[in-house]
Specification:
The chain is α+β, with helices and mostly antiparallel strands. Helix content is about 45%, strand content about 20%. It contains 17 helices and 17 strands. The protein has a five-stranded antiparallel β-sheet, with helices on both faces. The protein has a five-stranded antiparallel β-sheet with strand order 7-6-10-9-8, sandwiched between helices. Bound molecules: adenosine-5'-diphosphate.
């Protein structure tokens, strides 16, 4: 049914000609299930139906004759709507909030349009008002749901981000393997393998190719055992990164049983444990070193006790003999006993001196150096030696001018004495000991040469190690194996060097070289120091 809005006097004509029709329309208006009202040009309510009064709870008197704006909760909203209408717009589904009689706010949706006469004057404004409460409530639920989803999404993203960072920090990847399809899904495993994200093929068979060949069987075995028996997977293996470095990984995992209790899937982690492995290896190495050092110490204590005991036994025996025999002992026997005592006492003294020097060198203590003429010190040591070993002959061959070296005197004496004592110990008394000197601009060299047991080439490198004794020497003469060590440490400490050599024609050469001091700065300064200028 259309109403001709352009026709003047419509209401009157309809009223005249279609009385019963008007009744019908009025009934229709009155009983429509949506709210209907009409407004005058200034917004005064002209007419309202039941549905609208019911919606808001007013009586007709309380509503009709009032301005519609009074019933709106939001003044700006109704003003805007009225403005649109007066501008000639059609208002559709305009959402507003109205105040009900009980004070509650009702959400409504309004369709509205203006009926004008031919000259454009407002006859009335038609308004259809629907209860919008359910839609608004549904929208609120929707909004709430949406914001929850967004929050959940954000939480998920943040959690994924945290996981990724944690994985990076822990150099850890996670994985899940489907035994039936052999497919592996993983996160962060690439960084553990030193490759780009997404570049690992997604199967276990392909994965195992990246594992160090020696470790492959172990990894396959471990994964199989977990899949078959359900034991926790815990396996360490190596992989070689594309940059060539070897990394240790630790894979841990657990089976995920399906409904039948079978375990078609395993899930777990895979972590770079290179640092831990290295630390572990280092710890084991240190422990080995410590154990070895302890063994060496035990051996040392045993050796030292033995070395000290044998001269002491001789000394003690002879002292008792001389003491108890008294006058009954003839002079030659007494002399022999006293000689034994003297020799063994000196031996003891040498051992203890070497031990002290070694201990001092180990502790890094330095000794005061002084300018010395090496030939002179050698002569002094040899003279002392000859008093004890009268049968021995020495040949001292000097080349070049003696020039001072800067060295602690007691240390130089000890070096020479140790070399001479070794030559004495390891060569027959009938063979002379030769001592040679050489010097150039840089250093003074001293060689002690004998025709004794000699040394195997393969042993030479070890002779200067603490407590090392060549096997053939052991049966030849007693010793602790520290004399040469002490020599080398003392010489090294002053910037010199030492060597051992097999001598052509038998026997050995032990030598050392010391840097010469420049004549000006280190010529002997004391009047009692020897001068060879
Ligand atoms: P020790 O003589 O107490 O064993 P050293 O440190 O002086 O300790 O010498 C270490 C080892 O070097 C000796 O045990 C011996 O095997 C070898 N050695 C040293 N001097 C000589 C030498 N003149 N001739 C042969 N071997 C020697």
């Amino acid at each position: 049914m259309t109403i001709e809005a352009t026709d003047d006097g419509l209401h009157e004509r309809v009223g005249r000609e279609f009385d019963s029709e008007l009744e019908l329309l009025r009934d229709f208006f009155e009983n429509a299930s949506v709210g209907l009202h009409s407004l005058s040009a200034d917004g005064t309510i002209l007419r309202v139906n039941r549905a609208e009064l019911d919606l808001l709870g007013y009586s007709e008197d309380e509503y009709v004759g009032h301005n519609i704006a009074e019933f709106h909760a939001d003044r700006d909203v109704i003003e805007d709507m009225l403005e649109r209408l007066s501008a000639g717009h059609l208002v559709r589904d305009y959402r507003a909030r109205m105040v009900a009689k009980d004070g509650s706010v009702k959400h409504v949706a309004i369709d509205s349009s203006v009926l004008r006469d031919a000259r454009g004057r407002v006859i009335h404004t038609r308004c259809i008002t629907r209860d919008d409460g359910q839609r608004v409530a549904a929208e609120a639920v929707l909004r709430d749901t949406e914001s929850r989803v967004r929050a959940a999404e954000q939480a998920l993203l943040a959690s994924a981000d945290r996981l990724r960072r944690a994985q990076q920090a822990a150099r850890l990847g996670t994985w899940e393997w489907d035994a039936a399809t052999d497919e592996v899904a993983w996160d962060g495993v690439e960084q553990v393998h030193g490759v780009e994200t997404g570049s690992l093929a997604g199967t276990f068979t392909a994965y195992i190719e990246d594992v160090h060949p020696e470790d492959q069987p172990r990894v396959v075995e471990a994964v199989k055992a977990t899949a078959e028996t359900g034991v926790e997977l815990n396996v360490e293996y190596r992989i070689v990164w594309p940059d060539g470095t070897t990394h240790w990984l630790e894979a841990r995992g657990l089976p995920i049983p399906d409904a039948d209790g079978a375990t078609p899937r395993l899930a777990g982690t895979c972590q770079d444990i290179t640092e831990r492995r290295l630390a572990q290896d280092e710890r084991e190495r240190l422990l080995d070193d410590l154990t070895r050092a302890n063994e060496v110490k035990d051996e040392f204590v045993g050796l030292v006790s033995h070395e000290l005991r044998s001269p002491l036994t001789t000394i003690y025996g002879n002292v008792r003999l001389v003491n108890h025999a008294g006058d009954r002992m003839d002079d030659s026997d007494r002399a022999v006993a006293l000689e034994d005592i003297e020799r063994e006492t000196e031996r003891l003294q040498r051992i203890i001196e070497n031990l002290l020097l070694l201990a001092r060198a180990e502790s890094g203590l330095t000794v005061d150096a002084e300018p010395l003429v090496v030939t002179q010190v050698v002569h002094e040591v040899v003279e002392r030696h000859l008093q004890r070993h009268q049968a021995r002959r020495f040949k001292i061959a000097e080349h070049g001018d003696p020039r001072p070296v800067v060295f602690p005197k007691a240390s130089l004496e000890q070096v020479i004495e140790n070399l001479v004592t070794n030559a004495e110990k390891y060569s027959p008394a009938s063979e002379p000991i030769v001592i040679e000197f050489e010097r150039d601009d840089r250093e003074v060299r001293v060689r002690v040469l004998d025709r004794g047991v000699g040394i195997g080439d393969e042993k030479i490198a070890r002779l200067f190690d603490a407590f090392y004794r060549a096997p053939d020497a052991t049966g030849y003469a007693p010793g602790l194996g520290i004399g040469l060590t002490v020599c080398k440490r003392l010489v090294d400490a002053q910037g010199g060097r030492m060597w051992a050599r097999r001598r052509d024609g038998g026997g050995s050469e032990f030598g050392f070289a010391l840097p010469v001091s420049s004549a000006n700065e280190s010529a002997p300064k004391h009047s009692d120091s020897p001068s060879f200028e």
